[in-house]
Automatic annotation (TrEMBL):
Domain of life from the UniProt record: Eukaryota
Residues covered by the PPM-type phosphatase domain: 1-161
Lineage: Eukaryota, Viridiplantae, Streptophyta, Embryophyta, Tracheophyta
Pfam families given in the database record: PP2C
Full protein name: PPM-type phosphatase domain-containing protein
Length: 162
């Protein structure tokens, strides 16, 4: 099993856009590699021409807490590929827009279940409090997950909020 990571920023129509994602290649690497290479372009093609009147400090979020396993193996609420699981799971995301309180939010942590199996959200935030470099913060979280005995793949992206 392999995880594939995307952490990419692009300037589009005067806006700084970022795509941050972790793809688990648990059923093989083809879908994860395809998403890594093409998802950002596909999203931009889908929304091209939509007008955003004011840049807002918002983020998309979806809750993945206490998600049961599908067929005893897949522990996520959405998946691409996995044709044999299509009866049980959707590739359509549940999205909500949340306003980021810049006074109260230092970072956004995206990680695979290798981290979340051994750390709570608060543990992860506490672990990187004071770390200013996002790469160092991600390395710190991975090291802590390993120290706590994680046996799963661990991928992590930390996005610092300016």
């Amino acid at each position: 099993m392999e995880d594939y990571v995307v952490a990419e920023n692009r300037k589009v129509d005067g806006y700084e856009l970022g795509l941050y994602a972790i793809f688990d290649g648990h059923s093989g690497r083809n879908v994860a590699k395809y998403l890594q290479a093409h998802l950002f372009d596909n999203i931009l093609n889908e929304v091209h021409g939509h007008h955003c009147p004011q840049p807002q400090p918002e983020a998309f979020s979806s809750s993945l807490r206490n998600v049961p396993r599908v067929d005893g193996q897949l522990a996520m609420s959405r998946a691409f590929g996995d044709a044999r699981l299509k009866d049980h799971i959707s590739s359509e995301p549940d999205l909500k827009i949340v306003t980021i309180d810049r006074d109260d939010t230092d970072s956004i942590i995206l990680a695979s279940d290798g981290l979340w199996k051994v750390m709570s959200n608060q543990d992860a935030c506490d672990c990187i409090r004071g770390v200013e470099d996002p790469k160092e913060a991600a390395k710190t979280l991975i090291a802590e997950a390993l120290a706590r005995g994680s046996k799963d793949d661990i991928s992590c992206i930390v996005v610092m909020i300016d």
